[in-house]
Write a structure and sequence with these properties.
Helix content is 71%, strand content 0%. By secondary structure, it is an all-alpha fold. It has one domain.
Length: 357
Protein backbone atom coordinates (compact mmCIF):
# COMPACT_ATOMS: atom_id res chain seq x y z
CA UNK A 1 0.00 0.00 0.00
CA UNK A 2 2.95 2.32 0.48
CA UNK A 3 3.70 1.63 -3.18
CA UNK A 4 0.09 2.41 -4.13
CA UNK A 5 0.30 5.71 -2.26
CA UNK A 6 3.56 6.52 -4.04
CA UNK A 7 1.96 5.66 -7.39
CA UNK A 8 -0.95 8.05 -6.79
CA UNK A 9 1.48 10.80 -5.81
CA UNK A 10 3.46 10.15 -9.01
CA UNK A 11 0.33 10.26 -11.16
CA UNK A 12 -0.83 13.46 -9.52
CA UNK A 13 2.50 15.31 -9.61
CA UNK A 14 4.33 13.95 -12.65
CA UNK A 15 1.34 13.11 -14.88
CA UNK A 16 -1.10 15.77 -13.63
CA UNK A 17 -3.87 13.17 -13.22
CA UNK A 18 -6.47 14.73 -10.88
CA UNK A 19 -3.72 16.12 -8.59
CA UNK A 20 -6.26 18.01 -6.48
CA UNK A 21 -7.54 14.72 -5.09
CA UNK A 22 -4.76 12.20 -5.75
CA UNK A 23 -2.20 14.16 -3.72
CA UNK A 24 -4.16 14.14 -0.43
CA UNK A 25 -5.30 10.55 -1.09
CA UNK A 26 -1.70 9.46 -1.70
CA UNK A 27 -0.48 11.11 1.49
CA UNK A 28 -3.40 9.62 3.41
CA UNK A 29 -2.45 6.13 2.18
CA UNK A 30 1.15 6.61 3.30
CA UNK A 31 0.10 7.84 6.74
CA UNK A 32 -2.51 5.16 7.47
CA UNK A 33 -0.22 2.29 6.42
CA UNK A 34 2.67 3.28 8.69
CA UNK A 35 2.84 0.40 11.20
CA UNK A 36 1.48 1.17 14.69
CA UNK A 37 0.38 4.69 13.70
CA UNK A 38 -3.15 4.05 15.06
CA UNK A 39 -4.52 6.89 12.92
CA UNK A 40 -7.68 4.95 12.06
CA UNK A 41 -8.64 4.37 15.68
CA UNK A 42 -11.65 6.18 17.15
CA UNK A 43 -9.55 9.07 18.46
CA UNK A 44 -7.00 9.09 15.64
CA UNK A 45 -6.82 11.59 12.78
CA UNK A 46 -8.59 9.43 10.19
CA UNK A 47 -11.04 8.02 12.70
CA UNK A 48 -12.20 11.55 13.55
CA UNK A 49 -12.33 12.66 9.89
CA UNK A 50 -14.26 9.56 8.84
CA UNK A 51 -16.81 9.97 11.59
CA UNK A 52 -17.23 13.72 11.03
CA UNK A 53 -17.17 13.88 7.25
CA UNK A 54 -18.00 10.48 5.74
CA UNK A 55 -20.38 8.77 8.14
CA UNK A 56 -22.39 12.01 8.34
CA UNK A 57 -22.09 12.48 4.51
CA UNK A 58 -20.90 16.06 5.26
CA UNK A 59 -17.82 16.21 3.00
CA UNK A 60 -19.50 15.30 -0.33
CA UNK A 61 -22.36 17.69 0.45
CA UNK A 62 -19.99 20.58 1.11
CA UNK A 63 -18.10 19.78 -2.10
CA UNK A 64 -21.38 20.01 -3.99
CA UNK A 65 -21.94 23.56 -2.73
CA UNK A 66 -18.61 24.51 -4.32
CA UNK A 67 -19.40 22.60 -7.51
CA UNK A 68 -22.73 24.39 -7.81
CA UNK A 69 -20.98 27.75 -7.49
CA UNK A 70 -18.75 26.81 -10.43
CA UNK A 71 -21.47 25.71 -12.86
CA UNK A 72 -23.24 27.95 -15.35
CA UNK A 73 -26.54 26.32 -16.33
CA UNK A 74 -27.07 28.89 -19.09
CA UNK A 75 -26.29 26.41 -21.86
CA UNK A 76 -28.87 23.96 -20.49
CA UNK A 77 -31.53 26.64 -20.11
CA UNK A 78 -30.90 27.87 -23.65
CA UNK A 79 -31.21 24.30 -25.01
CA UNK A 80 -33.78 22.47 -22.85
CA UNK A 81 -33.68 19.35 -25.07
CA UNK A 82 -30.18 18.58 -23.74
CA UNK A 83 -31.73 17.47 -20.46
CA UNK A 84 -32.83 14.31 -22.30
CA UNK A 85 -29.23 13.62 -23.30
CA UNK A 86 -28.13 14.03 -19.71
CA UNK A 87 -30.81 11.59 -18.57
CA UNK A 88 -29.97 9.02 -21.24
CA UNK A 89 -26.31 9.01 -20.30
CA UNK A 90 -27.16 7.68 -16.82
CA UNK A 91 -27.98 4.28 -18.34
CA UNK A 92 -24.51 3.08 -17.37
CA UNK A 93 -25.33 3.46 -13.68
CA UNK A 94 -28.33 1.14 -13.79
CA UNK A 95 -26.88 -1.14 -16.47
CA UNK A 96 -23.71 -1.73 -14.45
CA UNK A 97 -25.75 -2.11 -11.26
CA UNK A 98 -27.84 -4.89 -12.81
CA UNK A 99 -24.82 -6.53 -14.46
CA UNK A 100 -22.79 -6.53 -11.24
CA UNK A 101 -25.69 -7.93 -9.26
CA UNK A 102 -26.50 -10.63 -11.82
CA UNK A 103 -22.93 -11.94 -11.85
CA UNK A 104 -22.71 -11.44 -8.10
CA UNK A 105 -25.10 -12.60 -5.38
CA UNK A 106 -28.15 -12.10 -7.56
CA UNK A 107 -27.76 -14.99 -10.01
CA UNK A 108 -24.40 -16.44 -11.10
CA UNK A 109 -22.54 -15.90 -7.82
CA UNK A 110 -19.28 -15.34 -9.70
CA UNK A 111 -18.42 -12.09 -7.92
CA UNK A 112 -18.51 -11.33 -4.18
CA UNK A 113 -20.96 -8.44 -4.56
CA UNK A 114 -24.19 -7.97 -2.64
CA UNK A 115 -27.14 -5.92 -3.94
CA UNK A 116 -26.05 -2.72 -2.18
CA UNK A 117 -22.42 -3.18 -3.20
CA UNK A 118 -23.43 -3.69 -6.83
CA UNK A 119 -25.49 -0.48 -6.68
CA UNK A 120 -22.56 1.45 -5.22
CA UNK A 121 -20.26 0.19 -7.96
CA UNK A 122 -22.80 1.18 -10.61
CA UNK A 123 -22.87 4.78 -9.35
CA UNK A 124 -19.25 5.14 -10.50
CA UNK A 125 -20.84 5.54 -13.92
CA UNK A 126 -22.27 8.87 -12.76
CA UNK A 127 -18.80 10.31 -13.43
CA UNK A 128 -19.50 12.33 -10.30
CA UNK A 129 -17.09 11.90 -7.40
CA UNK A 130 -19.23 13.43 -4.62
CA UNK A 131 -22.32 11.45 -5.66
CA UNK A 132 -20.31 8.21 -5.80
CA UNK A 133 -18.89 8.87 -2.33
CA UNK A 134 -22.27 9.91 -0.92
CA UNK A 135 -24.12 6.83 -2.16
CA UNK A 136 -21.39 4.31 -1.34
CA UNK A 137 -20.89 5.77 2.17
CA UNK A 138 -24.55 4.90 2.83
CA UNK A 139 -24.92 1.60 0.96
CA UNK A 140 -21.43 0.04 1.06
CA UNK A 141 -18.95 1.95 3.24
CA UNK A 142 -16.55 -1.00 3.05
CA UNK A 143 -16.08 -0.21 -0.68
CA UNK A 144 -15.86 3.56 -0.28
CA UNK A 145 -12.09 3.81 -0.79
CA UNK A 146 -11.79 1.89 -4.10
CA UNK A 147 -15.01 3.49 -5.39
CA UNK A 148 -13.71 7.00 -4.66
CA UNK A 149 -10.35 6.32 -6.30
CA UNK A 150 -11.99 4.65 -9.32
CA UNK A 151 -14.53 7.46 -9.77
CA UNK A 152 -11.95 10.25 -9.76
CA UNK A 153 -9.38 8.29 -11.74
CA UNK A 154 -11.84 7.54 -14.56
CA UNK A 155 -13.02 11.16 -14.55
CA UNK A 156 -9.43 12.13 -15.29
CA UNK A 157 -9.31 9.52 -18.08
CA UNK A 158 -12.45 10.82 -19.84
CA UNK A 159 -10.33 12.20 -22.75
CA UNK A 160 -8.99 8.67 -23.28
CA UNK A 161 -12.11 6.59 -22.57
CA UNK A 162 -14.75 8.52 -24.50
CA UNK A 163 -13.35 9.29 -28.01
CA UNK A 164 -13.02 5.65 -29.23
CA UNK A 165 -16.60 4.91 -28.15
CA UNK A 166 -17.90 8.11 -29.74
CA UNK A 167 -16.20 7.32 -33.05
CA UNK A 168 -17.29 3.68 -33.00
CA UNK A 169 -20.97 4.55 -32.59
CA UNK A 170 -21.15 7.44 -35.08
CA UNK A 171 -20.52 7.73 -38.79
CA UNK A 172 -18.25 10.36 -40.31
CA UNK A 173 -21.28 12.06 -41.82
CA UNK A 174 -22.89 12.33 -38.38
CA UNK A 175 -19.74 13.78 -36.86
CA UNK A 176 -19.70 16.40 -39.63
CA UNK A 177 -23.15 17.77 -38.72
CA UNK A 178 -22.75 21.45 -37.88
CA UNK A 179 -24.75 23.13 -35.18
CA UNK A 180 -25.28 26.91 -34.90
CA UNK A 181 -22.61 28.74 -32.90
CA UNK A 182 -24.81 31.75 -32.19
CA UNK A 183 -25.29 31.74 -28.44
CA UNK A 184 -28.84 31.88 -27.11
CA UNK A 185 -28.60 33.35 -23.64
CA UNK A 186 -30.93 32.61 -20.76
CA UNK A 187 -32.21 35.60 -18.79
CA UNK A 188 -30.83 36.35 -15.35
CA UNK A 189 -34.28 35.85 -13.82
CA UNK A 190 -34.43 32.36 -15.35
CA UNK A 191 -30.97 31.52 -13.97
CA UNK A 192 -32.08 32.58 -10.49
CA UNK A 193 -35.36 30.67 -10.59
CA UNK A 194 -33.78 27.52 -12.04
CA UNK A 195 -31.99 26.24 -8.88
CA UNK A 196 -35.08 26.93 -6.77
CA UNK A 197 -37.35 25.01 -9.15
CA UNK A 198 -34.84 22.14 -9.42
CA UNK A 199 -34.69 21.75 -5.64
CA UNK A 200 -38.47 21.47 -5.43
CA UNK A 201 -38.96 19.21 -8.47
CA UNK A 202 -36.05 16.84 -7.78
CA UNK A 203 -36.87 16.77 -4.06
CA UNK A 204 -40.41 15.62 -4.86
CA UNK A 205 -39.32 13.09 -7.49
CA UNK A 206 -36.32 11.67 -5.60
CA UNK A 207 -36.51 12.65 -1.92
CA UNK A 208 -33.32 10.74 -1.11
CA UNK A 209 -31.43 13.11 -3.41
CA UNK A 210 -32.69 16.23 -1.64
CA UNK A 211 -29.50 16.84 0.32
CA UNK A 212 -27.27 16.45 -2.75
CA UNK A 213 -29.38 18.51 -5.12
CA UNK A 214 -30.04 21.09 -2.41
CA UNK A 215 -26.34 21.71 -1.80
CA UNK A 216 -25.58 21.78 -5.54
CA UNK A 217 -28.33 24.31 -6.22
CA UNK A 218 -27.46 26.38 -3.15
CA UNK A 219 -23.99 26.90 -4.60
CA UNK A 220 -25.48 27.81 -7.96
CA UNK A 221 -27.95 30.25 -6.39
CA UNK A 222 -25.08 31.96 -4.58
CA UNK A 223 -23.45 32.41 -7.99
CA UNK A 224 -26.47 33.53 -10.00
CA UNK A 225 -28.20 35.76 -7.44
CA UNK A 226 -25.38 38.29 -7.67
CA UNK A 227 -26.07 39.61 -4.18
CA UNK A 228 -23.51 37.52 -2.25
CA UNK A 229 -20.29 37.63 -4.31
CA UNK A 230 -18.22 36.96 -1.22
CA UNK A 231 -20.11 33.77 -0.38
CA UNK A 232 -20.04 32.64 -4.00
CA UNK A 233 -16.27 33.17 -4.21
CA UNK A 234 -15.75 31.41 -0.87
CA UNK A 235 -17.85 28.40 -1.95
CA UNK A 236 -16.11 28.15 -5.32
CA UNK A 237 -12.59 28.49 -3.96
CA UNK A 238 -11.89 28.29 -0.23
CA UNK A 239 -14.69 25.91 0.78
CA UNK A 240 -14.25 23.39 -2.03
CA UNK A 241 -10.45 23.41 -1.68
CA UNK A 242 -10.48 22.87 2.09
CA UNK A 243 -13.09 20.11 1.94
CA UNK A 244 -11.29 18.42 -0.97
CA UNK A 245 -8.11 18.21 1.11
CA UNK A 246 -10.02 16.71 4.05
CA UNK A 247 -12.01 14.36 1.80
CA UNK A 248 -8.87 13.15 0.02
CA UNK A 249 -7.03 12.56 3.28
CA UNK A 250 -10.00 10.68 4.70
CA UNK A 251 -10.41 8.45 1.66
CA UNK A 252 -6.68 7.72 1.63
CA UNK A 253 -6.77 7.07 5.36
CA UNK A 254 -9.43 4.40 4.80
CA UNK A 255 -7.19 2.52 2.37
CA UNK A 256 -5.56 0.25 4.94
CA UNK A 257 -3.86 -2.74 3.31
CA UNK A 258 -6.02 -5.32 5.08
CA UNK A 259 -9.21 -3.64 3.78
CA UNK A 260 -8.11 -2.42 0.34
CA UNK A 261 -6.09 -5.35 -1.05
CA UNK A 262 -9.04 -7.60 -1.79
CA UNK A 263 -10.56 -9.10 -4.96
CA UNK A 264 -13.45 -6.66 -4.61
CA UNK A 265 -11.10 -3.77 -5.33
CA UNK A 266 -10.22 -5.17 -8.75
CA UNK A 267 -13.92 -5.79 -9.42
CA UNK A 268 -14.72 -2.15 -8.55
CA UNK A 269 -12.17 -0.83 -11.05
CA UNK A 270 -13.27 -3.21 -13.83
CA UNK A 271 -16.98 -2.53 -13.37
CA UNK A 272 -16.24 1.19 -13.11
CA UNK A 273 -14.80 1.29 -16.62
CA UNK A 274 -17.82 -0.71 -17.83
CA UNK A 275 -20.12 1.91 -16.28
CA UNK A 276 -18.27 4.77 -17.97
CA UNK A 277 -18.38 3.00 -21.34
CA UNK A 278 -22.12 2.25 -21.03
CA UNK A 279 -22.86 5.86 -20.04
CA UNK A 280 -20.97 7.23 -23.02
CA UNK A 281 -22.48 4.72 -25.43
CA UNK A 282 -26.04 5.34 -24.21
CA UNK A 283 -25.58 9.09 -24.54
CA UNK A 284 -24.29 8.80 -28.10
CA UNK A 285 -27.02 6.35 -29.14
CA UNK A 286 -29.71 8.66 -27.78
CA UNK A 287 -27.93 11.53 -29.53
CA UNK A 288 -28.36 9.63 -32.78
CA UNK A 289 -32.08 9.28 -32.10
CA UNK A 290 -32.37 13.03 -31.45
CA UNK A 291 -30.33 13.65 -34.59
CA UNK A 292 -32.79 11.63 -36.66
CA UNK A 293 -35.89 13.18 -35.08
CA UNK A 294 -34.51 16.70 -35.58
CA UNK A 295 -33.86 16.16 -39.26
CA UNK A 296 -30.10 15.87 -38.75
CA UNK A 297 -29.82 19.22 -37.00
CA UNK A 298 -28.25 17.77 -33.84
CA UNK A 299 -24.78 16.29 -33.86
CA UNK A 300 -25.02 12.97 -31.96
CA UNK A 301 -21.56 13.52 -30.46
CA UNK A 302 -23.01 15.89 -27.88
CA UNK A 303 -24.84 12.93 -26.32
CA UNK A 304 -21.50 11.73 -24.96
CA UNK A 305 -21.36 14.88 -22.81
CA UNK A 306 -24.41 13.71 -20.88
CA UNK A 307 -22.19 12.22 -18.18
CA UNK A 308 -21.47 14.34 -15.13
CA UNK A 309 -17.73 14.90 -15.73
CA UNK A 310 -18.05 18.67 -16.09
CA UNK A 311 -16.53 20.35 -18.08
CA UNK A 312 -14.13 17.65 -19.29
CA UNK A 313 -16.69 15.68 -21.27
CA UNK A 314 -17.95 18.79 -23.11
CA UNK A 315 -14.37 19.59 -24.09
CA UNK A 316 -13.87 16.04 -25.38
CA UNK A 317 -16.94 16.43 -27.60
CA UNK A 318 -15.56 19.71 -28.91
CA UNK A 319 -12.21 18.06 -29.67
CA UNK A 320 -13.72 15.07 -31.51
CA UNK A 321 -16.00 17.40 -33.46
CA UNK A 322 -13.07 19.59 -34.52
CA UNK A 323 -11.17 16.52 -35.69
CA UNK A 324 -14.01 15.79 -38.12
CA UNK A 325 -14.53 19.43 -39.13
CA UNK A 326 -12.17 22.21 -37.91
CA UNK A 327 -15.01 24.72 -38.32
CA UNK A 328 -17.55 22.81 -36.24
CA UNK A 329 -17.91 24.20 -32.71
CA UNK A 330 -20.00 21.99 -30.44
CA UNK A 331 -18.78 23.18 -27.04
CA UNK A 332 -21.80 25.23 -25.94
CA UNK A 333 -24.25 22.55 -27.09
CA UNK A 334 -22.24 19.85 -25.30
CA UNK A 335 -22.08 22.02 -22.16
CA UNK A 336 -25.88 21.92 -21.98
CA UNK A 337 -25.86 18.11 -21.95
CA UNK A 338 -22.93 18.10 -19.52
CA UNK A 339 -24.67 20.29 -16.93
CA UNK A 340 -27.86 18.28 -17.42
CA UNK A 341 -25.83 15.17 -16.64
CA UNK A 342 -24.71 16.76 -13.37
CA UNK A 343 -28.33 17.01 -12.23
CA UNK A 344 -29.32 13.64 -13.70
CA UNK A 345 -26.52 11.83 -11.86
CA UNK A 346 -27.77 13.22 -8.54
CA UNK A 347 -31.32 12.10 -9.36
CA UNK A 348 -30.02 8.64 -10.32
CA UNK A 349 -28.12 8.37 -7.05
CA UNK A 350 -31.22 9.40 -5.12
CA UNK A 351 -33.31 6.88 -7.03
CA UNK A 352 -30.92 4.06 -6.11
CA UNK A 353 -31.00 5.10 -2.44
CA UNK A 354 -34.81 5.18 -2.55
CA UNK A 355 -34.92 1.68 -4.05
CA UNK A 356 -32.52 0.05 -1.60
CA UNK A 357 -33.17 1.80 1.71
Amino acid sequence: MLGVGGLLLYLGIARNVEPVLLLPIGVGILLTNIPLSDLTEAGGLFGVLRQAGIETELFPLLVFIGVGAMIDFGSLLARPYTVLLGAAAQFGIFGTFLLAYMVGDGWLHLLPLSLKQAASVGVIGSADGPTSIYVSSILAPELLSPIAVAAYSYMALVPIIQPPIMKLLTTKEERLIRMPIVETKASQKMKILFPIVVIIVVGLIAPKATALIGCLMLGNLLRESGVVPGLSAAAENALVNIVTILLGLTVGGMMVATEFLKPQTIIVFVMGIVAFALDTGAGVVFGKIVCHLSGRKVNPLIGAAGISAFPMSARVVQKVGLEADPQNHLLMHAAGANTAGQIASVVAGGAILALLL
